[in-house]
Amino acid sequence: PPTCPVGQTRLCARGPPLSRGFPKARVRRLIVFAMGLLGGCCKMGCRMAVAFGIVPLSVIIAVFLETPVVLELDDATLSARGAAGAAPEEAADAAESSGAASSPKAEFGTAVPEGFGSGGMFDKIAFVYDSTNKWMSLGLDQYWRKTLVEQCMRLEQGDRVLDLATGTADVSLLAADQLRALGAQASSDGTPAVLGIDPSSEMLRRGVSKVETRGFEGVVKLVKGDAQDLTSVRAIDAAGTLSEPTSGVADASIDKISMSFGIRNVPDRAKAFREMKRVLKAKDTSRVCILEFSLPDGEKLLSKVAKMFITKVVPFIGQIATMNSGAAEYEYLEKSILKFPKPVDFAASMAREGLSVSSITSFAFGSVHLYAAAPAAPTAAA
Q: Which residues of 323-354 are buried (b: 16+ CB within 10 A; e: fewer)?
C-alpha cells in the first residue's frame, strides 16, 4: 500500500486521478465506443421517427392528391330515403320535447345563448378559429370553400348572396371577389351583394375587419342573426358594437345561399331549411350550397385514418390552440360530427323541406361533403 503523509491518508489512499493512471489508448477506445453507442441510438431514433412519420405524411400527401368523389342524386332516391328517415327524426323531435337526455338533439340542440354550438360558444374560440381551421384541415379549408363558391354557387352578374354561419367572413369574401369580377359594386340603396349572417359577435367583429381591410364595404355586409329565423338581424361594426334589431331577409330576395361548417350547429335544421326556401328566389339558377364535416365510414385505411384524425387529433389541436380554455368547445366539435347524419340522409332531410340536392361532393376520404341544392319544383296540382 502507498505511504501517505500524516493527515492525508484518505486522499492519498484513493490513488492518482483516472486520467493519469488509465492508459490513454483505452480512454480513446472508451470515448469512441460511447460516441458510437450514442450515434447508434440517434440513428435508431431517427429510423423510428421516420417509420412513425411515414403514415401521417402519406395521408397528408394522399389528401392533397385526392380526387373529390361526386355522387349524383335524383328526386326518387331522395324521396325514398326521406320516407325512410322521417320516422327516426320525428322520434328524435318527440324525445327532445320530452327532455330526453339520450337524444342527440336534446344533448346539443338546446338553443340557449351560451350553449354548445351557439354564438356564445364561438365567441369563446373566435380568437383562434381561423388558425385552428387551417391546422385541422391541413390547410385545405380554403380549397373546400373556393370549390363551394366557384363550382357550386355558379355566381352570375347581379346575384345577391346570403352566407349563413359566415363566421369570420371567409366565404363572403370569396363570393365578393367573384361578384366584383362580374361587375358588382357598392349599391346606392345600401343593399349589399353579399349578406353574411352569424350568431357570434366575436366572429363577426373579426369578419368586419377583414371586409374593411379588403375594401369590400358596401359589397359585403355582416349582421348578427339566427339561421332558424332570418326575419330580424342586427348590424355590427369592427368594434363589436351591435345596432338595434332591424328587418331581416325578405321573401324571394336571394339568388344563392352558402353555409360552411355551420348547419351541424343549428338546433332545428328543418326550420333553417324552410327559412332558406323562403328567402330563395324560385328560379332555375337559384342555388343552396352547404359544406359540412361528416364521419368517414369507409373501410379503406385512409378513411379510417381520417376518422381517427377527427375523433382524436381535432380535439387535441383545439385544446392546444386555446391553451385548454376551449377544450370543451372542441370536444363538442368532435361529438357533433359523430352525431351528424350520413350524407344521403342529410340530403334527404333538405329535400323534405323543399331543397332538392342534385349532388354530394366528398373530400378528404369522406370527412367533408359539399351539398349542391336548388329549390324543388312546385308539385303539379292533381
A: eeebebbbebbbbbbeebbebbebbbbbbbbb
The answer to whether the predicted template modeling score (pTM) of the entire model surpasses 0.70 is: yes
The pLDDT tens digits for 25-76 are 655 655 665 566 555 555 545 544 444 444 455 556 666 677 899 999 987 7
Contact present, 139 and 132 (Cβ < 8 Å): no
* Greatest extent of the chain over all pairs of C-alpha atoms, in Å: 124
Dihedral sign for Cα atoms in the order 263, 264, 265, 269: positive
Least confident of 19-28, 239-248, 356-365: 19-28
- The CA distance from 321 to 319, in Å, is 6
**10 Å Cβ neighbour count for 240?**
14
pLDDT per position as a tens digit, 219-255: 999 999 999 999 999 999 999 999 999 999 999 999 9
CB 174 within 8 A of CB 139: no
- DSSP H helical segments within 291-376, as ranges? 301-308, 314-321, 327-339, 343-352
Give dist(CA 117, CA 370) in Å, integer: 20
Question: Rounded CA gap, 238 and 230, in Å?
Answer: 22
